[in-house]
Amino acid sequence: MPRSRYAGSISGPKVDVAIDMGNPLLNVTVDGFLKIGTVAATRAAAEDAYFIVKKGSFSSHSVEDTLKKMCKEGAYWGTVAGVYAGVEYGVERIRGTRDWKNAMIGGALTGLTISAASNNNRDRVVLDAITGGAIATAAEFLNCLT
Can you tell me the distance from the alpha carbon of 104 to that of 6, in angstroms, rounded to the nearest whole number? Predict the structure, then answer.
């Protein structure tokens, strides 16, 4: 008896922007900044839109506050992502291999750098470095599963 098969996949639209800065490290860093900064700004806009609708009042003041929050969140998380992407790329180039250890080192150094720049105490900086390394390593392992 003849059988037929159907195989397919559905994936969402993928938008990829490439900016050539003339240096691969800068390319990776700027790419991370733009992608994650955009996500953070969009999240801030969606959150504020929810609260504006919930409150039921819409004013130019609330729009200004939303734009300020979008810029602040986008710049902060874009910087974190840019630092992480740049450090991970640098570690990969130094080690000569691409594996989970690069993510761990990149996450730890990014957590340390961002925490130290925020004038946190020594214990908080160490904890943020551990957290950054753990999250980056877990994300790398999860990417390997899919």
Answer: 40
Q: Is the model's pLDDT at 91 over the cut of 70?
A: yes
Question: How many helices and strands in the chain, by DSSP H and E?
Answer: 4, 0
pLDDT confidence tier of residue 105, bands split at 50, 70 and 90: very high
Q: At what angle do helices 100-117 and 60-95 cross, to 10 degrees?
A: 130
- Contacting residues for 100 by C-beta, under 8 A, at least 6 apart: 137, 140, 141, 144
Number of Cβ atoms within 10 Å of the Cβ of 61 = 9
Tokens representing residue 104 in the block: 């761990």
132 contacts: CB under 8 Å, gap ≥ 6: 84, 107, 108, 109, 110, 111, 112, 114
Per-residue pLDDT, 144: 86
Q: In which residue are the tokens 């130290």 written?
A: 116
The mean pLDDT of 46-57, rounded to a whole number, is 89
Alpha carbon 14 to its chain centroid, in Å, reads 16
Token pair 């630092």: residue: 83
State yes or no: pLDDT of 6 exceeds 50: no
Q: Is 98 left (phi over 0), alpha (psi -120 to 50) or beta?
A: beta
The model's pTM: 0.79
